[in-house]
Amino acid sequence: MAKKIIAVIGSEVCGLSSVKCCLDEDLESVCFERTDDIGGLSSYQQVLKYFRMYVKDFNLLNCIRFKTTVYSVKKRPDFSNSGQWEVVTECKGKKKVNVFDGVMVCTGHHTNAHLSLERFPGIEKFKGQYFHSRDYKIPEALTGKEYYC
Fold first, then answer.
1. pLDDT tens digits, residue range 67-85?
2. Fewest C-beta atoms under 10 Å: which of 19, 68, 72, 82?
3. pTM (2 decimals)?
4. How distant, in Å, are the alpha carbons of 80, 89, 94, 101 from that of 77?
5. Phi and psi, residue 94, nearest 5°
């Protein structure tokens, strides 16, 4: 019997651990990452060093396809018999249709920043700067500024 192939979408903590679990269960795994590095939104934190060690220690790098965007995931026409999924990706301007036995979506719940500004009465009068924590990358940019949490 052929080894089952699992698609993992995203290479942050859930994606990386999913790839490792697949390998531990003797499944083949392909991880699609739209950027050129692991870590997702954690790429500006200390945890990225841990992710790099994790990938190296468990030899996961060869499972990750960088700069690859996933456009769609859908059941194959014969899904009721095969249980397989069709995943459409694009890398370097070339679209590709991939077939997998399973799919894990590990993009995280912070992929799209959401500022619930409606919960802050008077925000429309606020003259200062506000932004989502995912946009905080350079602490020096805020040096000498007042802030409120």
1. 999 999 999 999 999 999 9
2. 72
3. 0.73
4. 8, 18, 23, 13
5. -110, 125
